[in-house]
Each structure stands twice: as C-alpha cells, then as structure tokens.
C-alpha cells in the first residue's frame, strides 16, 4: 500500500438491540440483530446468516411500562423457550464475526466498525453484556444519525422515511423488505443500511 493510499474499513457490523428500559444504566438486552457488510453496504454473508436473537428474560425480571405496552410480542418471545441467554447470544455473534469478518484481529485498527442509528446506545449495552462481541470491534462507530442531522441542517429537507417500503427497497442493497416494522432489531438494521445508502446518493453531491 502506497503512502497516499488510505486503508479502508475491513467491514461494517450493523447492530441493533431492543432494551428492557430506556434507562440504559439499569436496562438489559431483549433482542439483538447483526448484519455484516462491506464498505459498499453489500452483505458479506448470505441473507440466511442474518442474526436475529431474542434474549431470555429470567423469571420475575421486569421490563418498563412502555416496553410492556409497545413490545409485548417481543417480551413474550423473550419469555419463551426459543429465547437464548446473553452468553449464547455473545457466542453466536462472535462466531458470525469470526466467519464473515475474519475476526479476531490483534490490531484494533484492523477490526470492523460497529454501525447503526444512534448506535452509541447499542454500543453501551453491548459493552456491558456482550464482551466477546465487543472485543472484536474497532473503537470507531459509524452512526447514520450523524448524516441524518447533516441532511436536515444542510438541505432543510425531510429525513429518510423508514416507514416507506418503496424507499427502503430503493436503497437497501438487493431490496426484499416486505413491510416496515419499527422496534424490530433486524428491520431497524436494514432501514439503517438503506438510510446510509440514501445519504450517500443524495448528500455528498455538492
């Protein structure tokens, strides 16, 4: 690599989580989802390898009133036999990164970057509960919310519409999104990828 050639990020690890509460200091994970892409936002794995896990709620463990009301279906899944422990979720995510992103890397500069919308919230809980996952990531974060703010401030236009299935499929590589499903971790990842593609196409044109 020449002196003037800049090293590209090895991969983007798109991550989203749903929580038991918006109070992050006391919240636990309810759902985690992962898609790994290259820097052009193309999956580095087949769609069937997208990870979407419900985290087991221990007996008597409570969720906030908002979560109980708005995510009742997810809460029920987390109390079912299909839910996995935090330790199992951490193991599966780490194995996914090892297989498709080539981790672990000794040098932190070679590691893939965590990506998503307002991803610092997800990063905070990931650091608390998913240590194997966290040890495979770069120190940088790719937060699509940064570009959303720039889009609204520079262009004074409406932000990307995550409720529009047509717009989602226009920008999500390969399309295939059947319905908008906010507060589902896997859908939110796909919407974030589509949103970044939208800003790449429309924001950096000056």
Tell me about this structure:
39% of the residues lie in helices and 14% in strands. It is an alpha/beta fold. It has a single domain (12-202), classed as 2-Layer Sandwich (Nucleotidyltransferase, domain 5). Helix 6 (144-155) packs across helix 8 (185-202) and helix 7 crosses helix 8 (185-202). The radius of gyration is 17 Å and the shape is globular. The two termini are 30 Å apart.
Question: What name does CATH use for the topology?
Answer: Nucleotidyltransferase, domain 5
- Calculate Rg over CA atoms: 17 Å
Structural class: alpha/beta
Do you know the CATH architecture?
Answer: 2-Layer Sandwich
Strand content: 5-15%
Strand line-up across the major sheet: 3-2-1-4-5
The run of helices and strands is EEEHHHEHHEHHH
The number of distinct structural domains comes to: 1
Number of helices: 8
What spatial form do the alpha-carbon principal axes imply? globular
Distance between the termini: 30 Å
Name of the level-1 CATH class: Alpha Beta
- Ranges where pLDDT stays below 50 over 5 or more residues in a row are none
Q: What's the CATH superfamily, by name?
A: Ribonuclease H-like superfamily/Ribonuclease H
- Mean pLDDT level: 93
Number of strands: 5
Largest sheet: 5 strands, mixed
Helix content: 25-40%
């Amino acid at each position: 690599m020449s002196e003037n050639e800049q090293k590209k990020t090895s991969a983007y690890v798109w991550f989203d989580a749903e929580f038991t509460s918006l109070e992050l200091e006391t919240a636990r994970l309810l759902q985690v989802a992962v898609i790994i892409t290259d820097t052009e936002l193309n999956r580095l794995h087949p769609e069937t390898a997208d990870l979407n896990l419900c985290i087991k709620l221990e007996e008597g463990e409570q969720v906030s009133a908002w979560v109980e009301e708005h995510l009742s279906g997810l809460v029920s899944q987390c109390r079912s036999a299909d839910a996995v422990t935090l330790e199992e979720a951490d193991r599966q995510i780490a194995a996914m990164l090892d297989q498709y992103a080539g981790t672990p890397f000794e040098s932190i500069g070679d590691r893939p970057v965590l990506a998503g919308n307002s991803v610092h919230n997800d990063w905070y809980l990931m650091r608390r509960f998913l240590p194997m996952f966290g040890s495979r990531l770069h120190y940088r974060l790719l937060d699509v919310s940064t570009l959303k703010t720039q889009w609204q401030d520079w262009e004074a236009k409406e932000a990307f519409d995550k409720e529009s299935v047509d717009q989602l499929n226009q920008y999500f590589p390969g399309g295939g999104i059947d319905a908008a499903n906010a507060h589902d971790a896997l859908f939110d990842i796909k919407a974030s990828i589509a949103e970044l593609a939208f800003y790449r196409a429309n924001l950096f044109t000056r």
